Amino acid sequence: MSRVLVTGGAGTIGAAVVRRLLADPAYEVRVSDQRPAPQWMREGCEVHTGDLRELEQARTAMAGCELVIHLAAIVGGIANFHKLPHTLTEVNNGLYNAVFRAALDHDVERFTYVSSSMVFERATEFPTTEAHLPDCPTPRSAYGFSKLTGEVYARAAHAEHGLPFTICRPFNAYGPGELPDPEPGIAHMVPDLIEKVLAGQRPLEIFGSGEQTRTLTHIDDIADGVVTAMSSPKGLNEDFNISASRELTVAETARIIWEACGEDPKGLRLEHLPTFEVDVPRRWPSVEKAKRLLGWEARIGVEQGIASTVQWLRERTDRVAVRSGRSQTTKPART
Predict the structure, then answer these.
(1) Would you say residue 308 lies in a domain?
(2) How many domains does the chain have?
(3) Between the CA of residue 188 and those of 12, 65, 86, 195, what are the distances in Å?
(4) At what angle do helices 85-106 and 55-62 cross, to 10 degrees?
(5) Residue 273 in domain
(6) Residue 283: CA count within 13 A, CB half-sphere
(7) CA distance 149 to 256
(8) What is the SS3 assignment for the chain?
(9) pLDDT in tens, 286-322
(10) Cα separation of 300 and 304, whole Å?
(11) Are 163 and 103 within 8 A, CB to CB?
(12) How far is CA 166 from the centre of its chain?
């Protein structure tokens, strides 16, 4: 049995990764996160709560762990890229410095770095293969640059010290667990749009023309892809796009969400608000490498995944409304 450290394990993707690991008797799980871990996680895992930017805390979290999945980072919607560019760069680099050093000190068997589709922010090849990265222009956003920096750390630690690594790039994660945010663009598109439809916003506000494309990938598929890549011998010192394969415009996604919320398809009207400076026009990855080397592919269709997300958020919103007696706010959706 191998012990796995999941940094950022209390987040949306992190919790999905932890659930996937706990379902496999081959793994024991330790979570490191400064956010409160839910009860089910505290019952099934060891929990570390220190600041992983501090080297001694990173060493303590990693002690006795053969495997590491590094998810801890400042993330969020498109507004975070513009509102917190220095903060997210400073925090994420602080995490890299300590966590990669601790991994080297403990001689871990595999360090799995969870990167982001934003490293392909300025991609010119579609569908975008992993091999496109060296030719892809550097991301303009601080977030994209920061996530790319983590990939450089992984490769550098391998080149100089032999650190065994795997890089996974999730694309447009969504699913139960992520909440909308009162400020436009802080959360991601799917929870924001669901909340606005359920709150009765008419017309439905989105950023930009709606012709931007995304490849929505359910968090359970992402979790399975990350664990599969981590555990496969063929994933050693490789990078993978962990994504569904269906490219959808933001407007098409809005329609799927509208109908999943039980609204009349004929009643959808969109209001197009000015978008942010960095709003990726197209995001469509190739998933052939993961399929070929790992035998992995996403299995949860968008309609099915969004329906389950609507149900989860509707139930949670109803509970919050009953407790607080307050109405929900509405806002533009992050793309």
Answers:
(1) no
(2) 1
(3) 12, 32, 20, 11
(4) 50
(5) no
(6) 26
(7) 35
(8) CEEEEEECCCCHHHHHHHHHHHCCCCEEEEEECCCCCCHHHHHHCEEECCCCCCHHHHHHHHCCCCEEEECCCCCCCHHHHHHCHHHHHHHHHHHHHHHHHHHHHHCCCEEEEECCHHHHCCCCCCCECHHHHHHCCCCCCHHHHHHHHHHHHHHHHHHHHCCCEEEEEECCEECCCCCCCCCCCCCCHHHHHHHHHHCCCCCEEEECCCCCEECCEEHHHHHHHHHHHHHCHHHCCEEEEECCCCCEEHHHHHHHHHHHCCCCHHHCCEEEECCCCCCCCCCCECCHHHHHHHCCCCCCCHHHHHHHHHHHHHHHHHHHHHHHCCCCCCCCECC
(9) 999 999 999 999 999 999 999 999 999 989 877 655 5
(10) 7
(11) yes
(12) 16
Structure tokens at 72: 């801890």
Is 13 within 8 Å of 71 (Cβ atoms)? yes
Query: Model confidence over 206-238: pLDDT tens digits?
Result: 999 999 999 999 999 999 999 999 999 999 999
Q: How far from the centroid of its chain's Cα atoms is residue 229's Cα?
A: 16
Residue 182 in any domain: the answer is: no
CA gyration radius, the chain: 19
The CATH number for 50's domain is: 3.40.50.720
Q: Is residue 267 in a domain?
A: no
Give this prediction's pTM.
0.93
Task: Judge whether 270 and 189 are in contact, CB under 8 Å.
Answer: no
- Quick one: tokens of 111? 């360090």
Burial code (b: 16+ CB inside 10 Å, e: under 16) for 185-217 equals bbbbbbbbbbbbbbeebeebbbbbebebbbbbb
Average pLDDT of the chain is: 92
Q: Which domain holds residue 151?
A: 2-173+218-242
